[in-house]
Automatic annotation (TrEMBL):
SMART domains (alphabetical): HATPase_c, HisKA
Gene3D superfamilies named in the record: 1.10.287.130, 6.10.340.10, Histidine kinase-like ATPase, C-terminal domain
Organism: Clostridium bovifaecis
InterPro entries per the UniProt record, alphabetical: HAMP_dom (IPR003660), HATPase_C_sf (IPR036890), HATPase_dom (IPR003594), His_kinase_dom (IPR005467), HisK_dim/P_dom (IPR003661), HisK_dim/P_sf (IPR036097), HssS/ArlS-like (IPR050398), Sig_transdc_His_kin-like_C (IPR004358)
UniProt-recorded name of the protein: histidine kinase
PROSITE patterns in the record: HAMP, HIS_KIN
Reactions accelerated catalytically: ATP + protein L-histidine = ADP + protein N-phospho-L-histidine
Length: 413
C-alpha cells in the first residue's frame, strides 16, 4: 500500500476523490436535514389542521388532543387509527400525489439527490479524464522518445520526477538510452578499429608482397646462376618470415584492443616472468653484443598473466637491445612498496629525441634514428596495450648522455 501511494499522481487523484466524496456527503447531509425540516413543517401543518377542526367542533378536546400529538402512540391505538383511515381509503399504497404535503417534499428531495448525483458523476468524470489523460500523455512521450531513439537520436533524455513508479520508468528509459548509445558507440568504435586494422595490414604487407612478386618474376624470367637463385629465394624467405611475424603481432594487438582475450590473472613470481624473458632474448643479445642483466633483491609477487606480460617485456627489452649499440647494456630492476610495483628497463645507446617521446607507443611509428629497414613499429604499441590490460601504465624517460628508461607501474588498490 505504501509503494502504491509513493506515486504523486496517485496521491493527487486520491485526495481529489476524497474531496469530491466529502462534498457529496455534505450535500446529501444538507439535503436530508432540509427534508427533515420540511417534513416536520408538514407534520405540524397536518396536526394544526386536525386540531383546529376538532377544537372547533368540541373546545373541550383541546387539552386532550395536544398531549396526544407529542407522544408516541401505542400499538393498539395505531391499529385502531389505521382501521379507521383504511375505511376512507387512506393507506401506505395510496399514490404520493394524493398526499399534498408529502408530494412536494418528496419531489424536492428527489431533485436534490439527482442534482447531487449528477454533479458527483461530472466531477468523477473530470477527475478520471485528467488522471488518465496525464498517463496517456506520458505514454505518448515515451512512444515519441522511443521512436526518436530508433531513428538514431541517442542523446534524448526525458525529465525525471522526484519519486514514484513513473519516475522509475523514466529513469529506466533514460538508462536504456544510455546503454544503447554506449553500445552503438562501441560498435562504431569496433567498425573503425576493423577498418584501421585492415588498412594497417594491407599497408604493411604491400611492400614485402611487391618485393616477393618482383623476386619471383626474376626467378621465372631470368637466367640466373644457382647462387643468384639461392640469394633471391633467401630474400623471399626473409620477406615471408617478416610477413608471418607482422600478421601474428597484428592479430595479437587486434585481440588486445578489441578485448577479445581473457587474461589468466593470478598471483605469481614477477622475478620468474622477467628471468624467462631474459632467457628468450639471450641469443639476440649475444648476436648484437649487448649485455642484459636482471638486478633482483627480493622475490616480488604480482597478479598477472605470465605469457602476455612476457610478450610485453620481450618487445620492450628487444627494442632496448636493438638500440643499445655494440657492447651496450640493458638493466632490469623491480621496485616494490605498499603503493605500487614497478619494473624499470634501462638501456644505453643514443637518447630518444624529446619530440618523439610522445609518439613511440603509436602503432607503426618509426623514429628517425631507426636504421633497420624491417622495423614496422608495432612492438612498443603491443607492449603498451598489454600493460594497460593488466591495469598498469608505461612511461619513458630519455635524456642526452643518460640511459633511456622504460618504467612500467602497477598500482596496488
Amino acid at each position: 500500500m505504501r509503494r502504491y501511494f509513493n506515486n504523486p499522481e496517485i496521491k493527487k487523484s486520491s485526495i481529489s476523490f476524497l474531496l469530491i466524496m466529502l462534498v457529496f456527503l455534505l450535500c446529501n447531509s444538507a439535503i436530508i436535514n432540509g427534508y427533515n425540516r420540511k417534513l416536520k413543517s408538514d407534520y405540524v401543518k397536518v396536526f394544526s389542521n386536525i386540531t383546529a377542526k376538532l377544537v372547533e367542533t368540541d373546545p373541550k378536546l383541546e387539552k386532550e388532543i395536544v398531549p396526544l400529538l407529542t407522544r408516541e402512540v401505542t400499538m393498539d391505538e395505531e391499529k385502531i387509527g389505521r382501521e379507521i383511515l383504511r375505511e376512507y381509503g387512506l393507506t401506505e399504497s395510496l399514490d404520493n400525489s394524493l398526499f399534498p404535503y408529502i408530494k412536494g417534499s418528496f419531489r424536492g428531495m428527489e431533485l436534490s439527490i439527482l442534482c447531487a448525483g449528477f454533479i458527483l458523476t461530472a466531477l468523477l468524470f473530470i477527475l478520471n479524464y485528467f488522471q488518465y489523460g496525464y498517463f496517456y500523455e506520458s505514454m505518448r512521450v515515451f512512444s515519441s522518445a522511443a521512436k526518436q531513439i530508433v531513428e538514431g537520436d541517442y542523446n534524448l533524455k526525458l525529465s525525471e520526477e522526484k519519486e514514484g513508479d513513473l519516475s522509475k520508468l523514466t529513469k529506466s528509459f533514460n538508462s536504456m538510452g544510455e546503454v544503447i548509445r554506449g553500445n552503438i558507440q562501441a560498435l562504431n568504435k569496433e567498425k573503425r578499429f576493423l577498418v584501421d586494422l585492415l588498412s594497417d595490414i594491407s599497408h604493411q604487407l604491400k611492400t614485402p608482397l611487391s618485393t616477393m612478386i618482383l623476386y619471383n618474376d626474376i626467378l621465372l624470367n631470368k637466367d640466373l646462376t644457382k647462387e643468384q637463385q639461392i640469394t633471391f629465394l633467401k630474400n623471399n624467405e626473409n620477406q615471408l618470415n617478416r610477413m608471418s611475424w607482422l600478421i601474428l603481432n597484428l592479430l595479437k594487438l587486434a585481440k588486445i584492443d578489441a578485448n577479445a582475450i581473457e587474461l589468466e590473472i593470478e598471483k605469481q613470481s614477477l622475478n620468474e616472468t622477467i628471468e624467462e624473458t631474459v632467457e628468450i632474448l639471450e641469443s639476440k643479445a649475444v648476436q648484437l653484443k649487448v649485455k642484459v642483466e636482471f638486478i633482483q633483491e627480493d622475490i616480488v609477487y604480482l597478479k598477472h598473466d605470465r605469457l602476455w606480460l612476457q610478450e610485453a617485456l620481450i618487445n620492450i627489452v628487444k627494442n632496448g637491445i636493438e638500440h643499445a649499440g655494440e657492447d651496450g647494456r640493458i638493466n632490469i630492476s623491480i621496485e616494490d612498496n605498499p603503493i605500487y610495483t614497478r619494473i624499470i628497463i634501462s638501456n644505453t645507446g643514443e637518447a630518444i629525441p624529446e619530440e618523439e617521446l610522445t609518439h613511440i607507443f603509436k602503432r607503426f611509428y618509426r623514429g628517425k634514428r631507426v636504421q633497420k629497414s624491417d622495423s614496422v613499429g608495432i612492438g612498443l604499441s603491443l607492449a603498451k596495450s598489454i600493460i594497460e590490460r593488466h591495469g598498469g601504465y608505461i612511461e619513458v624517460i630519455s635524456r642526452p648522455s643518460e640511459e633511456t628508461k622504460f618504467i612500467i607501474t602497477f598500482l596496488k588498490y
